[in-house]
Amino acid sequence: MKTILHKSETRGHADHGWLNSYHTFSFANYHNPERIHFGALRVLNDDTVAGGMGFGTHPHENMEIVSIPLKGALEHKDSMGNIGVINKGDIQVMSAGTGVYHSEYNKNKDEEVKFLQIWVFPDKRGVEPRYDQMTLNDDDRHNTLQEVISPGFDKGLWLHQDAWFYLGKLDTDNTQEYHLKKDTNGVYIFVLEGEITIGDQKLHKRDGFGIWETDIFTLKANTDAEVLLMEVPMDI
């Protein structure tokens, strides 16, 4: 088993006034040659956007983009004609493929929005752009790992990649055993709230921990905790 630890305070940071962003991996003006990506996971940004502010229309291509609101509401518009709002409890997926323009704004003028912006390298380039979103059932992750994204077309949201995302909301002392889907994959765990232990490694709020070259690992909640698990290919 191989592991890598990214403590929350070691992340890149950019405060633009309207945007306060923490970067787990190199992004924009933050460049760390030792933290470019974890396998196919390229970007994990922890963003807070002031009321009424946001990202103006800008392009993307050949990237799978996932947005997970943690507080507030995020308004999306894109060149495919999609207009929508994602709230805490929702999840959004966009395949940029051959190219797409989009904007993301805080829907509300009087409160901030917090969300995770995640980019995953696709397993094929030049696909037709697409957009999808889903409202999740919070109860489906209580003391379990709720699958929210997979590579398949038969349920939930999916990516152009052999990647699986899970959310868990765990009570103190709850234990979860995770079996990797493929031996060439790794799992990146991001702690949203609370404290957990994996092996002998304690992880706190906004810590990240990567695991690969193993078939299985066990996660224990030391306090009430919320976690995001992202299984992605490592051989890219």
From TrEMBL:
<feature type="domain" description="Pirin N-terminal">
    <location>
        <begin position="10"/>
        <end position="120"/>
    </location>
</feature>
<dbReference type="InterPro" id="IPR014710">
    <property type="entry name" value="RmlC-like_jellyroll"/>
</dbReference>
<feature type="binding site">
    <location>
        <position position="104"/>
    </location>
    <ligand>
        <name>Fe cation</name>
    </ligand>
</feature>
<dbReference type="Pfam" id="PF02678">
    <property type="entry name" value="Pirin"/>
</dbReference>
<dbReference type="InterPro" id="IPR003829">
    <property type="entry name" value="Pirin_N_dom"/>
</dbReference>
<comment type="similarity">
    <text>Belongs to the pirin family.</text>
</comment>
<feature type="binding site">
    <location>
        <position position="102"/>
    </location>
    <ligand>
        <name>Fe cation</name>
    </ligand>
</feature>
<keyword id="KW-0408">Iron</keyword>
<protein>
    <submittedName>
        <fullName>Pirin</fullName>
    </submittedName>
</protein>
<dbReference type="InterPro" id="IPR012093">
    <property type="entry name" value="Pirin"/>
</dbReference>
<feature type="domain" description="Quercetin 2,3-dioxygenase C-terminal cupin">
    <location>
        <begin position="152"/>
        <end position="232"/>
    </location>
</feature>
<feature type="binding site">
    <location>
        <position position="60"/>
    </location>
    <ligand>
        <name>Fe cation</name>
    </ligand>
</feature>
<dbReference type="InterPro" id="IPR041602">
    <property type="entry name" value="Quercetinase_C"/>
</dbReference>
<dbReference type="GO" id="GO:0046872">
    <property type="term" value="F:metal ion binding"/>
</dbReference>
<dbReference type="Pfam" id="PF17954">
    <property type="entry name" value="Pirin_C_2"/>
</dbReference>
<dbReference type="InterPro" id="IPR011051">
    <property type="entry name" value="RmlC_Cupin_sf"/>
</dbReference>
<keyword id="KW-0479">Metal-binding</keyword>
<feature type="binding site">
    <location>
        <position position="58"/>
    </location>
    <ligand>
        <name>Fe cation</name>
    </ligand>
</feature>
